[in-house]
Amino acid sequence: MHIGFEAKRFFTNFTGLGNYARFVVDALSEFYPRGHYTLYSPKTRTHPEIDPIVRRSNVQVVAPTGGYRFLHGLWRSWGVSRHATIKTLDVYHGLSQELPAGLPASVKKVVTVHDLIYIRYPQFYKPVDVAIYKAKAKAACTRADRVIAISQQTAQDLVDFLQVDPGKIDVVYQGCHPIFKQSVSVDVRAQVRQKYNLPDRYILNVGTLESRKNVHQLVKAVALLPRETRIPLVLVGRATAYKEEIVRTARESGLEDQVIFLHQASFQDFPALYQGAEVFVYPSLFEGFGIPLVEAIESGVPVVTSTGSCFQEAAGDGALYADPHSAEALAHQVARTLQEATLRSQLVEDGRRYIQQFQPAAIAQRLQEVYRG
């Protein structure tokens, strides 16, 4: 089977959408080596995350030529459909919520939709961006023969917000980056703590510091922990204007010196940061899937996260759940993980069993079922 991929973010993005694109191509090319996989991208580059995948004999890269080298947007949205290799494809898969116009009828069209947060929470986005994102997603879902949602929550949002026929939606989960399978030694964890001036014990949260992530509520929860239980909170992620609210909450809660921000942590240090944590807490109000939950579970860390949205799908029995609007409820569950050793071990064991469905071989199999169905 010859699969083509819209692969811009495969080459240009080294967080969410880029990690997803590389995960998909890596898993398929490894576990279904008889297939042929062509990546269509307006830009290419060499990088340690990219090179091992594109060097495989069953992976090919196609970039624009001629005048399209200067018209990347036009090539992605229309020109790529005219490339000679397109007619040889069995499937064209848009990995990031977009499909070009004009693909031949003979090519099966698949698109992955990660989330519709910009429709559910438009106040977090510029109005023009909401309009553009919605139009692109609607067009892609209309062109697609099959729409892949990365969670049941996203599948329901597709029906509710874009009126996509539920009969053409397939839920295929995503896995986390393979770096989180690494077991980090005690010495390396100590070196990473020293590098970032972290305490021996800490509560961890990972993600962009934006209001939807609800971290100020986590700060309130930490303040409610018994003094003999309370440990510092480490926040790893890019800062936005929302950081001011977190800092203000910490100051008002008397925790200003116990909330630690890491805005420039190296991705290579993430396994040590996760594995060195006592508990990972993710009180987000809404996500398309919540990949940090899988990263934490893969790292062997007990998890506390929110009720609702997709969080039960991502973490299963590997987490405790609390109302994200209630600092008291969050504090109760965090305190349990810090105080009950048996519970901690059970969460880690149950979580690792649950996330077997997110492993590369399982995801590759589900994608093949969509392609062939």
Tell me about this structure.
- With 373 residues, this protein is of the alpha/beta class.
- The chain has 2 domains: 2-172, 3-Layer(aba) Sandwich (Rossmann fold); 178-356, Rossmann fold (3-Layer(aba) Sandwich).
- It is 41% helix and 15% strand.
- The protein has helices at residues 8-12, 16-31, 51-54, 72-77, 117-120, 127-143, 152-162, 186-195, 215-224, 243-252, 270-275, 291-298, 311-315, 327-339, 341-354, 360-372; strands at residues 2-6, 36-40, 59-62, 91-94, 108-113, 146-149, 169-171, 203-206, 233-236, 259-262, 279-282, 303-306, 319-322.
- The protein has a 7-stranded parallel sheet, with helices on both faces.
- Helix 2 packs across helix 16 (360-372) and helix 9 (215-224) packs parallel to helix 10 (243-252).
- It starts with a strand and ends with a helix.
- The model has no long low-confidence stretch (mean pLDDT 96).
